[in-house]
Specification:
Elements lengths: L31 H19 L8 H30 L14 H11 L4 H20 L26 H30 L9 H10 L9 H14 L3 H13 L18 H17 L3 E2 H15 L5 H14 L8 H11 L5 H9 L4 H11 L3 H7 L10 E2 L6
Parallel strand pairs: 1-2
Length: 401
């Protein structure tokens, strides 16, 4: 048998190929979320392994790593969310309360801190039975790690087996739920940074209310009263809380569009935008594909055609609308996006900046998406007639020839 030299080991240096390296420390971003994801993923891989008939002999030695990984992932997930909400969403938590490994007190703290948002409450309700079951099996995070407890007593006294098929079956749904929790946490943080919430409603609920309400001109009709009665009953809120949500919607650029109360653009004229969309549709319809150089040339020709009507602020707003419509950013960032681009586009570079945005293949589609996102629903609807439905294509040419 070949003798292995353990004295030469250094796990932090590459032995053969960088392809086997895993990033740690300053070389990547690790936090409790990535650790939780890692423990859950490893639990799933091990559970998939031991469930195979030919791997039966591994079950008794891998059961504890599997269960510990699941439990630790749950613990880290809760701690991660509590820290994120505390640091970034002003949902203050005494961080000292999350020290240690006792799961049930941590879970109860999470329930208390998450009560401000119904989406978090729903998540908790869905996995509460599993968390409590895991806690009943190992309340302090020791039994899955050691064969005896601190008193010297054998762990799992009175229990005989663990159904690893049952464990395997819930790990995948648990991973989906935990990843949903991480995404939801980021969403909540974004919403609270931009102030897109009221005391009783989160952003998604306010958006839904804006869609349930009739047009603002019909608010004195029974239709408005019906929506009000239904929402007050469903969410058990006061008239004042409902009125606060309605006032929020009226002032909100995106949501007010759903009640027929559209806010004007900052600089760009709607008729000018329709003319540009019409011109882009004409260009797209004329040829199935263009080279990049041709698209740039046509963009410059379009600028020369409309330059007397276009201001630097108009071009900045074209860019703000397009990039908002082409991204996952919340509509609340629209004003900041416009202000930033308005500071960058000037009379000296307006032609270049217009060429950049108008030459986008999906210029009209991006404008439609952006307009819908900022509540300019009527204008977006008018632009639909200029959205090119044919095959998208740009011919790639070798400029070195």
């Amino acid at each position: 048998m070949t003798r292995f030299d353990f004295s030469a080991i250094n796990i932090f240096e590459t032995e053969q190929s960088f392809l086997t390296n895993a990033c740690v420390g300053k070389n990547c971003i690790h936090d409790m979320q990535t650790y939780a994801e890692g423990y859950l993923k490893s639990a799933q891989i091990l559970a998939d392994h031991v469930i195979k008939p030919e791997k039966m002999s591994d079950r008794d030695i891998l059961v504890h790593p599997i269960l510990y990984s699941v439990r630790h992932a749950i613990e880290l997930s809760i701690k991660h969310v509590l820290i994120e909400l505390n640091d970034k969403a002003n949902v203050k938590t005494d961080i000292n309360l999350i020290i240690g490994h006792c799961l049930k007190p941590l879970w109860e703290l999470f329930k208390q801190q998450a009560s401000f948002d119904r989406r978090l409450v729903k998540f908790i309700e869905e996995i509460d039975p599993l968390v409590l079951h895991i806690d009943s099996a190992d309340s302090e995070g020791q039994d899955f790690r050691y064969p005896t407890n601190i008193n010297g007593d054998k762990t799992y006294d009175g229990r005989m087996t663990v159904d690893l098929a049952a464990v395997r079956n819930f790990i995948h749904p648990l991973r989906i739920k935990v990843m949903f929790l991480f995404d939801l946490t980021e969403k909540i943080i974004s919403e609270r940074i931009v102030g897109a919430y009221t005391d009783k409603f989160n952003r998604e609920e306010l958006e839904q209310l804006s869609k349930d309400l009739p047009d603002i001109e019909s608010w004195r009709t029974p239709a408005f009263k019906e929506v009000k009665s239904r929402w007050i009953s469903k969410y058990k809120i006061s008239n004042r809380a409902f009125s606060g949500a309605v006032d929020f919607i009226k002032k909100h650029r995106e949501f007010s569009g759903n009640i027929g109360n559209e806010h004007a653009l900052f600089s760009l004229d709607g008729d000018l935008l329709k003319s540009l969309a019409k011109e882009k549709h004409r260009i797209r319809k004329k040829e199935k594909s263009y080279t990049f150089l041709q698209y740039n040339r046509l963009a410059l020709e379009t600028y020369n055609k409309f330059c007397e009507k276009l201001s630097a602020s108009d071009v900045a707003e074209l860019q703000a609308i397009y990039y908002l419509g082409s991204s996952s950013e919340l509509s609340e960032w629209y004003e900041n996006g416009f202000e930033l681009r308005n500071s960058e586009v000037s009379d000296s570079n307006i032609k270049k900046e217009f060429e950049h945005i108008f030459s986008k293949i999906d210029f009209v589609k991006g404008m439609i998406n952006g307009l819908n996102k900022i509540g300019m629903i009527s204008l977006a609807s008018e632009l639909k007639q200029y959205e090119y439905e044919g095959k998208t294509g740009i011919e790639i040419i070798d400029l070195t020839l």
